[in-house]
Specification:
Layout (H helix, E strand, L loop, with lengths): L1 E5 L5 E8 L3 E5 L10 H7 L4 E5 L15 H16 L3 E6 L1 H12 L4 E7 L10 H13 L3 H8 L5 H13 L5 H11 L8 H17 L2 H6 L5 E5 L11 H6 L3 E5 L7 H4 L1 H12 L4
Parallel strand pairs: 3-4, 3-5, 5-6, 6-7, 7-8
Antiparallel strand pairs: 1-2, 2-4
Helix pairs in contact: 2-3, 5-6, 6-7
């Protein structure tokens, strides 16, 4: 069931909810793209009332700023208030994992469980990115030259979609299925908000350099589940310091999966999340 959420500054956010039970709010990655977590909602709708939303300026939400981590934390709180109630579990993927973590740090009394899927950690030097670039180029293989050629010029919407599909294909461990999975992520194609992407990425880098987020994680008194795919082209060692900082954390690595572990190992993903959600808050 779709719904519109209005933030206190008047921005309209697209949202959807399905299933029954305690609420679980999903935060998609990007930044600058739309919610692609429908398959996660379908996996978990027997365990929770799953709420998805498009972040401000992205997908089906209103195309307006400002684009900042603090603003997105406030938007997530608006989704929680309108659709989830006083307290909810929160699951974030990739950039959305950082958003979910920041939300839990800012509003721990409003979060029952935090699920951190395929995030990139809290290390201030962001040392994962060179490894990501090398692994991306290696996994693109025969598609590398086309991906590079598209990146060297101004793109039509069709070309932008093509380049995104090529890049997203590297996020899957199985090369035979990777393009099919990436095409699924890009359908329907709702466009990339590059202004949002640049602003949020720059702020996250600055935030990790200038704030002691590890200390705030050490004070976070709620259960956290970290889920990784060992074949993710972003080095999973980047999350080690986050795992060590969290006082109530478990970590699950789902064999045979990359950046989107629910796609390539759905049964174990559902089992891990369901068991965690039924644990005592």
């Amino acid at each position: 069931m779709t719904a519109d959420v209005r933030t206190e500054d008047g921005c309209r956010l697209w949202a959807d909810q399905a299933g029954a039970g305690a609420p679980l709010v999903l935060c998609h990655g990007g930044p600058g793209i739309w919610d692609y977590l429908g398959p996660v909602a379908r996996l978990l709708d027997g365990q929770a009332r799953v709420i998805r939303w498009d972040q401000r300026g992205c997908g089906r939400s209103q195309r307006r700023g400002p684009y900042s981590v603090g603003r997105f934390v406030a938007d997530l709180d608006a989704v929680r208030e309108h659709l989830a109630g006083p307290r909810t579990a929160v699951l974030g993927h990739s950039w959305g994992a950082h958003l979910a973590l920041r939300y839990a740090i800012e509003h721990p009394e409003r979060v029952s469980h935090l699920i951190y899927v395929s995030g990139t950690g809290i290390d201030p030097e962001r040392g994962w990115h060179p490894h990501y670039e090398r692994n991306l180029r290696r996994r693109l293989g025969s598609h590398l030259s086309r991906w590079e050629a598209l990146g060297a010029r101004t793109l039509t919407p069709a070309e932008e979609r093509e380049r995104a599909v090529l890049q997203w294909s590297a996020d899957f461990a199985d090369p035979d299925a990777a393009m099919t999975h990436a095409e699924g992520m890009a359908t329907p194609w709702l466009g990339i908000n590059h202004d949002c992407n640049r602003a949020i990425n720059a702020e996250v880098k600055q935030e990790l350099r200038e704030s002691d987020i590890a200390a705030r994680c050490r004070a976070l008194d709620l259960p956290v589940l970290i889920i990784d795919g060992p074949e993710d082209i972003r080095p999973r060692s980047g999350v080690d310091s986050l795992e060590k900082a969290l006082p109530n954390c478990e970590r699950v690595s789902l064999a045979g999966s990359g950046h989107l572990p629910w796609v390539e190992n759905p049964q174990h993903f559902r089992r891990a999340v369901a068991a965690f959600l039924t644990s005592l808050p």
